[in-house]
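--- STAGE predict ---
source: upstream dedup step, 1 unique chain passed
mode: sequence only
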Amino acid sequence: MLKSAVPILASLNEDETVKFYTEKLGFTFHSSWEGYLILGRDEIFIHLWPCADASIPKNTGCYINVNEVDKLYAEFEPLGVIHPDGALKEMPWHMKQFSILDNNGNIIHFGEEMDDE
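--- STAGE serialize ---
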């Protein structure tokens, strides 16, 4: 029955957020309704709502399941967006993952299920 989920994160500045997601993360900007943003990459969409409280995105995030996590990490790592404690690593829950911080302070984890070898 359930098909997909769309994270809704906080955005402190519409223009800077669109620029970050399109130029740094390779997302496509789809639309803005009074600052409510919709961006997508591949089959993933992220919505961001306008927020004036900088503490909210610092306590907000999402997890995105991916294929080829090593390749995605290699793309993002030189851009300076990796979370200080978010380097690519194998986790005990059988995911290989890394984490980034967006321009607002939202944390986004990218993970790929590891084979049970």
